[in-house]
Model the fold of this input.
Amino acid sequence: MADHLIRAMAAEGGIRAVGVITTRLTEEARQRHNLSYVATAALGRTMTAGLLLVSSMKRSGSRVNLRIRGDGPLGGVMVDAGLDGTVRGYVDHPEVELPPNAKGKLDVGGAIGEGFLYVVRDVGFEFPYSSTVALVSGEIGDDVAHYLVSSEQTPSALLVGVFVGAEGVTASGGILLQVLPKAARDEALVELLESRVASMAGFTPLLQAGKTLPQIFEELMGDMGLNILSETQLLRFHCGCTFDRVLGALKILGEAELQDMIIKDKGAEATCHFCNAVYQADSQQLEKLIEELRGEKAEA
Done:
């Protein structure tokens, strides 16, 4: 099944729900970055959360950046997700592995440790909206839900999960439930929804049991006037890096540094952090950059 996103409403428009399947894109990230088990879970959960967050934005071209900076051995996690259904990301130390936690699950919280979650919402204007919150567990889902409540004042439940085994990622996805202002005053409704979410053992066990997103929504909100919207959006791992962009970045280094690369290395090699693509520029291409720099100086 292709990775996809669906939306739903319940309680006469008082509850907004979004669900995503991200199995293939998480597996692609695992292969691209040669991720350990715990690094796969951390990045997969964060990419899933990014896609869930950006789904509420309206303006075409909108993007959400999630940056997690902890004191654990994994270092940081960086994710960039777009309203167009594309996502990319990386972790600082993809080789880090830890024993399972006390519950027998991948210890993502231990790998990330204590720190902060930085969220940037970019709708294409000059000044993106940014927010910072302290991590509450390092388990990603709890931390992003905490951000929604503290920074956006929206009661939210967010479940994200990744199952990775010897054959790679076999289940990954998540759901975001938000109680909108018109329903937030109904305490009984909020408590019922919270209890049902709390009773779930996790998200990936549902996928492994063969449950679809509509079936999961039905179990959670089937008696709350559930309305599953017909549109399905496809999701994919995608990075917009190009060789021309890499050359532009090399140009910033300046003439002296480029000359040094030509003499010592006969060229330059650059790796994209987000997708791990490797780009190589030979001496002639670096000489052309130097000529362009000299021309720009002459014009100035």
Summary: The chain is about 40% helix and 30% strand.
